[in-house]
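# step 3/5: fold
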Amino acid sequence: MKNDTVIFAACREFKNDAATNATWFQTFPPYGRYPVDGTVKGAAADAEFIFDEAAAKAIMDAFRAAAKDPEWPGILVDEEHYSLDRSKSSAAMAWAKDIRQEKDGSIWTRWEFTPKGRELWESKTLLNRSPAFACAHSGKEYRPTALLSIGMTNTPHFSELSTLAAARAAEVNNNKGEIHMKKLMVELGLAEDASEDAAVAACKALKGKASAAEKSAADALAECRKMKCDAFIEANKAKIADVAACREVYMANPEAAEKMVAFVPCSGTIGTAEPRFNYTGPQDCQAAMLFGGKSNKLCTFACIGLGNCAKACKFDAMHIENGVAKVDRYNCVGCGACVDACPKSIVKLIPESQKIMPACRNMDKGAQVMKICKVGCIGCMKCQRECPADAITVVNNLAQVDVSKCIQCGHCADICPRHIITYFGK
């Protein structure tokens, strides 16, 4: 029986565990026999990977044995298996910290993302993953024995990188740090006694292939960005004066051109927010402010609710419902007319992708808020304490979301005792 290190085809499945806010990623497929299909250099055309109970047990046992070390960071999750190539960055995208097996035999790992890794995942830049694993083989059968690393990728079957994986595994597995040169030469397609110059030339050739593959991936990403740009321009053509300039900006930084939508951070409807007076004058927010100060409600931060924003909206996206302005996110085009029309500067624009926002502006202490509004934020800090991403902080008695950290799990909305945090994902 011989040992090899290989990289298997990419998996796409993932699951969100609502109870723990953890995300699990399929790392090995269900039990079965899978074609090697060129992944292992020199393997027979009809060679197969064997994923069975023995393989699963070996993988699980190896992972759990490593996890017993209190300083063990987890299994490295990198970008495109770059950690197997010393000429590329080996920065971690995540660390696989836990492992489990499903009834169908498939093996899943729980990841803790780094900021860059989370960005690549949430932006859907890299959606697949493929494991690099130690593999024992006998004849035409290759059976995994240990998970070595995981690559976030869009490209299954990294046949060229399998050679680099074998070299790296040889370094790690040799206690004296000596590379098994004969095996490396064979993996490079050379004779066991080939010269160092021949090995260097073979490695350069592999790097050339990797560079070509990387360029191909970059070209695909550029084409994807162009398609998204075309869709963005088509959806917003009524507001774009210079299409060429917009395209240039979008292609350079598509995030900067993301669609924005209006949001009204107030939930003080009739019956929940105590009135200051019964206003019967012109249905205009500015007029009401002139008549009674900052607001027609005891909460001076509240939406007046007389519809200046709704009158300014040309897309039927803003309506007054029970005394508070509400936004129809489907119709909103993010033009900002409502923002300009609001005399209290309550309405603001937020990225359409942001699903979590506190619908309150009141910065009074909790006891005072409870006297004047049945739903206002009281600064209890429960959301701050329980946010799994440390994305919420209570500042000046008011919950605030750091959109750069928010993973939009919705947990804060579920636990808020005042139900003031809006979750657009539901």
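# step 4/5: annotate
DSSP finds twelve helices and 18 strands in the chain.
# step 5/5: archive (pending)
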